[in-house]
Design brief:
The protein has about 150 residues and is of the alpha+beta class. It has a single domain, classed as 3-Layer(aba) Sandwich (Aminopeptidase). The protein contains four helices and five strands. It has a five-stranded mixed beta sheet, with helices on both faces. A hairpin with a 2-residue loop joins β2 and β3. The termini are far apart.
Length: about 150
């Protein structure tokens, strides 16, 4: 039976293993120690909301959301920044449940929007997101300045 819960500090080491796999999926080198510290800071400082998907008490996926604000709408919005399910558990509904938990957070905090960005090469995500109610924004330009 699938279950979703908010991550806490007790989940840190197991969550960090998946976070490391997630980063590797996007081409970053493994760095488990830094990943543990990064997630620990997010949890302890309440800088993000992390939900985990459990299969028989084992963490098999997670979603991490960051709060943002819309000045024009004068409301909070959430950035769904990270979503990952281990390959052997894909296709079992975990991603959809994690997205639903994200939508519930949006509703509970009276946020005006849940937004995300993914690589054009992420074929799984680009099929999943429209199926879960996300609409691809073709009207706005996305710009980034990277501080190297």
């Amino acid at each position: 039976m699938n279950s979703i819960k908010k991550a806490c500090i007790l989940d840190l080491e197991e969550l960090a293993d998946l976070f490391d796999l997630y980063r590797q999926f996007y081409g970053y080198p493994s760095n488990l120690i830094s990943g543990i510290e990064f997630l620990k800071q997010r949890i302890e400082q309440n800088e993000s909301e992390i939900f985990i998907a459990l299969d028989k008490e084992k963490i098999v996926g997670f979603v991490q959301l960051y709060p943002l604000f819309s000045s024009t709408r004068m409301k909070k919005l959430w950035l769904l920044n990270d979503l990952f399910v281990v390959p052997q558990h894909r296709g079992k509904g975990f991603s959809k449940e994690l997205i639903e938990a994200s939508k519930q957070l949006c509703r509970a905090t009276n946020a005006c929007q849940l937004t995300l960005e993914t690589s054009k090469m992420n074929k799984i995500g680009n099929k999943l997101y429209p199926k879960t109610g996300f609409v691809l924004d073709k009207e706005n330009n996305y710009y980034a300045w990277v501080n190297l």
